[in-house]
UniProtKB/TrEMBL annotation:
It comes from Sulfurospirillum tamanense. Residues 284-337 form the MannoseP isomerase/GMP-like beta-helix domain. Keywords: GTP-binding, Isomerase, Nucleotide-binding, Nucleotidyltransferase, Transferase. This is mannose-1-phosphate guanylyltransferase. Belongs to the mannose-6-phosphate isomerase type 2 family. One of its GO terms (molecular function) is mannose-6-phosphate isomerase activity. It comes from the Bacteria. Residues 346-455 form the Mannose-6-phosphate isomerase type II C-terminal domain.
Length: 462
């Protein structure tokens, strides 16, 4: 069986913790592990192979977290990279096209939490039996309260009668009372060939455009890349709309597995450990007459006085304060930031790249200061900038620097200056991390002022 792991989504309801380039599945919230890593742990014991569907921007985040664990690293794993998102139906279809028709596939999001792994494995076993018979199996989560933020599955035994959109409160209460309605988990199990056959019948345009895109794929080092233009041509649709709501082969396995989609700060609060006053545990939190709060922040001390039922999230460059119960509205903050053309919805102060990371120390009109760390054996792209000059100072490690036709070495406390327009590259040929301070000076210091002339990681050239 192959585990298809879907790594899409931007997690706008968990801003400022989650950003477009660091979505919630990669944030290490649970005993220094991310939801993505917990998904790997949960499924490698029951699946022989991993097929991870990711955006090109998040590929290296996923790869780094996979390689942090020796067990993950040695498991049979393949990445399928989407240059632009087209929703779950195309993502799953492209992944299934990379497999044999009879292969059982377990489709799981990368950003869900499952606490009862024993019951989870029992549910998987039931679903496998149904899938071998040619069914498309979905997992219905036994509801514990009248949730309005999830879609519902109406069942008659193992047969799916209907899928229902997110209900209002009164309808959700009726669903809960009826006893045959389940939360739609977004997890599935079926044969790859059966899914593709049903997709071809019920959404022929998606099937045809996915097939055309897959036939022109490129494969290198267990990484499948889809061409941007062919990906854009695929209609965007969810697996529910494209197949599950139309197929006559759908079954549901009721699952009481301690599931959470961690889709809001309210649901995150329920999953995190708490102190005796009901505050989430945080060594940087000083609580005076405060209880039942979610407090997140590791960079600064957070003091609360007389605070109850609140959410406080501090990430260094942004602060969120909300009442518990209102966190579904956080996505409106992201919408407002995007309307203002702010980068706060997309990036943190620390950004991750395939070669390492950078942290913005100061950003003011006319200049920006960064701390850059380059992993051993890695190098940045050969590049140039139009609007900024750069001054590099080596803090630790040894830097190999190329500027135009000259290549030279910089040791700690040594520096160099790169003028706007000059072609340059930074490389770490050593065995220890390279740390430099970069001071950018110019009329524009945005991250998109870059032209990549050569790149080891096949990113876009500009």
């Amino acid at each position: 069986m192959t585990n298809i792991i879907l790594c899409g989504g931007s997690g706008t309801r968990l801003w400022p913790l989650s950003r477009t380039l660091m979505p919630k599945q990669f944030i290490k919230l649970f005993d220094k592990k991310s939801l993505f890593q917990l998904t790997l742990e949960r499924n490698i014991s029951i699946c022989e192979r991993l097929l991870i569907v990711s955006s090109t921007e998040q590929y290296f985040l996923a790869l780094d977290q996979l390689e942090e664990n020796a067990t993950f690293k040695t498991h049979d794993s393949t990445f399928l990279l989407e240059p632009t998102p087209r929703n779950t139906a195309p993502a799953i279809a492209l992944a299934c096209m990379a497999l044999e028709k009879e292969e059982l596939v377990l489709v799981t999001p990368s950003d869900h939490l499952i606490k009862d792994e024993r019951e989870y494995q029992k549910a998987i076993q039931k679903a496998q039996s149904l899938a071998r018979e040619g069914n498309l199996v979905t997992f219905g989560i036994t509801p514990t309260f009248a949730e309005t933020g999830f879609g519902y599955i109406e069942a008659e035994g193992l047969h799916v009668k209907a899928f229902h959109e997110k209900p209002d409160v009164d309808t959700a209460k009726k669903y809960l009372k009826a006893g045959n309605y389940y939360w739609n988990s977004g997890m599935f199990l079926f044969k790859a060939g059966v899914f593709l056959e049903e997709l071809q019948v019920h959404s022929p345009e998606i099937y045809a455009t996915c097939k055309a895109a897959f036939e022109h794929k490129t494969t290198q080092h267990s990484t499948i890349r889809i061409q941007h233009s062919l990906m854009e041509a695929i209609p965007s649709d969810s697996i529910d709309y494209a197949v599950m709501e139309k197929s006559k082969k759908v079954k549901v396995v009721p699952s009481d597995i301690g599931w959470s989609d961690v889709g809001s700060f309210d649901s995150l609060y329920e999953t995190l450990p708490k102190d005796s006053n009901g505050n989430t545990q945080n060594p940087r939190h000083i609580a005076i007459d405060s209880k039942n709060n979610l407090i997140y922040g590791a960079e600064r001390a957070i003091a609360t006085v007389g605070m109850e039922e609140c959410i406080i999230v501090d990430t260094g460059d942004a602060l969120l304060v909300s009442k518990r119960g209102s966190s579904q509205e956080v996505k409106k903050v992201v919408q407002e930031l995007n309307a203002q053309h702010s980068t706060l919805g997309a990036t943190h102060l620390t950004g991750y790249r395939p070669w390492g990371s950078y942290t913005v120390l100061e950003d003011s009109p006319g200049y920006k200061i960064k701390r850059i760390e380059v992993k051993p054996g890695k190098r940045l792209s050969l590049q140039k900038h139009f609007h900024r000059n750069e001054h590099w100072i080596v803090v630790s490690g040894c830097a190999t620097v190329k500027v135009e036709e000259e290549t030279f070495i910089l040791n700690p406390n040594e520096s160099t200056y790169i003028k706007a327009g000059q072609i340059h590259r930074l490389e770490n040929q050593g065995k220890l991390p390279l740390v430099i301070i970069e001071a950018q000076v110019g009329e524009y210091t945005g991250e998109d002022d870059i032209v990549r002339l050569e790149d080891d990681y096949q990113r876009e050239q500009n």
